[in-house]
Queue: 2 jobs
Job 1
Amino acid sequence: MGHISVPVPEELLLKGALSRGASAIHAASAINGRLATQDHAMRVMTNHPVCLHTVAMYTSTSSAPVAVARLARALTIFAYAWVLVALIMLVFGFFLLLLGANPHAAFAEWVYRGLTRVMAPFRGLFEPVPLDGKSVLDVSILFAMIVYGLVALVLHALIEWLTDRIARMRYAG
């Protein structure tokens, strides 16, 4: 850990932003800035023994775990967004097939192309049930919705856990 001293502006002392017992974080919020970079956890000592106008801070030099956790969270958010888009495509495709939409309409073609990609692991799992005329009940799509929904719940929980872990690593001390 390195030791740095940050001078506190006179106007903060005069306004009472940094009085006896107040922390440097209060002074930092009064300045509307940060005393350390975002990648460093900081420990703040109040009432610096050398000078009332100085705030002592200790910054850790290890920001690698926070960076790795941020990267993991970013990748998880990307995967979560992809799963949500896949779920939306599944819902659109399910209802278009169920209602017997014209497969030559531009929107239906677009949805069916996306549905083909999303349904690749589940294709042929269950036989589609033809209903009236063009309507089809595709149980494979329903099964895919359940699986993608469970994956979305797991990814959401992972994002929450990573966010909490990053916050604890940054503000631990």
Job 2
Amino acid sequence: MTRATRRGAVRVVIVAAAAAVLAVAGVGPATALPAARPAACPAGQLHGSFTDLQGSTGHYHAVLVVRNVGAGPCTLFGYPALQMFDAAGQPLTTSVTPDHFLGRARRVLLRRGARASSALTWVEIPPEPCVTPAHVGVTPPGATTSLTLLWPPQHNLVCGDGAIDATPFLRGVPRF
């Protein structure tokens, strides 16, 4: 092998190695741009409901379920913001505390028709200051508007000055 042939072979090896390193690093002309992450779910793209209503000895639990009814996917990351209202539509004292029982917040991708949920717990033990909600406004994380749901009528007291614990939104609807 002549000196020129060896140099040519070494150049081919170096170029191939460099291309392999760039490909592994995700750089190069053949690399596609990463897909854009769907935006946060706006309230108007979600339908909400309560399920799994349970309670005993003054402690109550419900699962807030949201379903994507929009045309495309969206994401939820974090906790729902809640505002309770009385039967006349007046805001009631509402205090939401993050509940880490089911783990930390994770980004939840909601394709059309998919559901996510947040477990809510509260206390109905008077004589603490209690409120009687008729509706609750639910603002998804990252959204600026809310959807309004009927508060479960069989559990119409929220004591502790409207204190509710909420887990982060999780994919699907867990059974408790």
